[in-house]
Amino acid sequence: MGSMSIWHWAIVIVVIALLFGGRGKLSGIMGDAAKGIRAFKDGLKDDSDSKGPKEGVSSLPRTEAEKEDLNR
């Protein structure tokens, strides 16, 4: 009961083969997820590199309270 029999190892190998094996659908999904995460990280890098607002984007006018906070 405490050790793994040949059947346990066979099931583990089959599950690993299904998850990470050749041209399976699940491995394709995993690859697509990795590409999505990479694209998200690249998008965050691009946003942090830019300084100031982008062209075509205007900021809202400041209220009197915000102006006072900036002057302190």
First and last CA, distance: 72 Å
The fraction of residues assigned to DSSP E strands is under 5%
What multimeric state do the chains show? single chain
Number of helices: 3
The helix content is 55-70%
Q: How many strands, what sense, and barrel or not for the largest sheet?
A: none
If you compute it from the alpha carbons, what radius of gyration comes out, rounded to the nearest whole angstrom? 26 Å
Label the overall shape: elongated
**Average pLDDT level:** 77
Q: Name the helix and strand elements from N-terminus to C-terminus, one letter apiece.
A: HHH
Structural class determined from secondary elements: mainly alpha
Low-confidence stretches: none
Number of separate strands: 0
Properties at a glance:
mainly alpha; 3 helices; 0% strand; elongated
Structure description:
- It is a single chain.
- It is built from 3 helices and no strands.
- The chain is mainly α.
- The longest helix is centred in the middle third of the chain and has 25 residues, at 25-49.
Question: TL;DR?
Answer:
The chain is mainly alpha-helical. Helices cover 67% and strands 0% of the residues.
